[in-house]
Design goal:
Length: about 100
């Protein structure tokens, strides 16, 4: 198992143990993302990730480009990357971006 895989597993376990069961507010999400994004952005939506109660999906638009981040309720952890449902092989991140584009 690679170090990155171990870190992601550890982070997931920490989030599970934190008992976060709801989405962060847009203000909490914005404050967390301002710490790591070097550009101006707007938050288009914050939604719980179906099936992963400790994570929320945060749709961000920066430079007219939508992006998806994942974070815990407190905004202490921000995850950038794809979430793939292993059983169905569905890329939940791509689905979120497609849904966002359809709403525009």
């Amino acid at each position: 198992m690679s170090q990155k895989s171990i870190f992601v597993f550890f982070l997931f376990c920490v989030l599970l143990m934190s008992g976060c069961s709801s989405a962060p507010s847009k203000d909490v999400a914005a404050a967390a993302l301002k710490k790591i994004l070097p550009m101006s952005f707007s938050i288009e939506g914050v939604h719980p990730v179906k099936g992963i109660s400790v994570l929320s999906e945060v749709i961000v638009v920066a430079n007219k480009q939508p992006m998806v981040f994942y974070m815990d309720k407190k905004g202490a952890y921000v995850i950038s990357g794809n979430i793939v449902e292993a059983e169905t092989k569905k890329n939940l991140t791509i689905e979120a971006l497609q849904k966002h584009q359809q709403l525009k």
